[in-house]
Amino acid sequence: MSYYLVLIQFFFALVALFLFWKSVEYFIGMWRYKKFKNMPLPPTYKQILLSLPHYLYLPGDLREKIHTRILLFIDQKEFVGVKMKITDEIKVVIAFYASLVRLGFDLDEHDTVATIIIYPKDFIVDQSYTHNGIHANKTSLLAGESANRMVVISWQYIQHHISSESKENVIIHEFAHELDLEDGMPDGTPELDTFASYPRYAQAFSNAFIILTKQVKRNLITKQAAFLGTYALENEAEFFAVCSERFFMAPHSLKRFFPDIYEELRNFYRLDTDLLFDKFSS
């Protein structure tokens, strides 16, 4: 009997320790938030932000909110440059788009990324995979990758997407992957607010993914398929990441081509980007 009593006491001690640690994390987080909320944005940061079209269209209240998020992001995340120097421009641009993705979430919600590794150009990655029971290795040239609370991205691609006002954005793409990975499964379904949301979300994404995949296999490239690109059809995880890119970079077109997907992403990200960025009508 005493053995079970010791186990119970040990269990409650672990629970108490866990709750204590979470409360410490909470108070440290709130202290940081208050510190940066009252801190003015450095003039160099403001100049960099003024060069980003999405920043210019944010209303005043969301600008103030994202200012705090950017300062917190730069303070808390580790930036690692590979054969390149990490500048204020690199940190602010990445922090802005990463914070834009989380702008509708609570401060500590869906905040898992700890490290951002930046390459000057695309980078080579050795990958292994299994298909029909056959294991193989391949070498890929990538613009971005994410795993284990770490995002790896190419600065060259970031600059290209911004300067060309592209419907693509490698920062949003990779941070969307991290949101998808929060539940441990890279399946294109992030952690939703309620269990009741999953069937509707799955129907919207699965229907579009299956239909587009069948069309592309028959070499039928519709306007919808061209808008997302064939890379979106690699798997469900890429489909979610690409749709997330379009949700922020070309919301009007996403809503026109895929209204059900737009609605699900609006609910998930808690932002109406079509209304917010109505100037992006491409």
UniProtKB/TrEMBL annotation:
Keywords: Membrane, Transmembrane, Transmembrane helix. The chain crosses the membrane at residues 6-28. It comes from the Bacteria. This is Zinc-dependent peptidase. It comes from Sulfurovum zhangzhouensis. The lineage of its organism: Bacteria, Pseudomonadati, Campylobacterota, Epsilonproteobacteria, Campylobacterales.
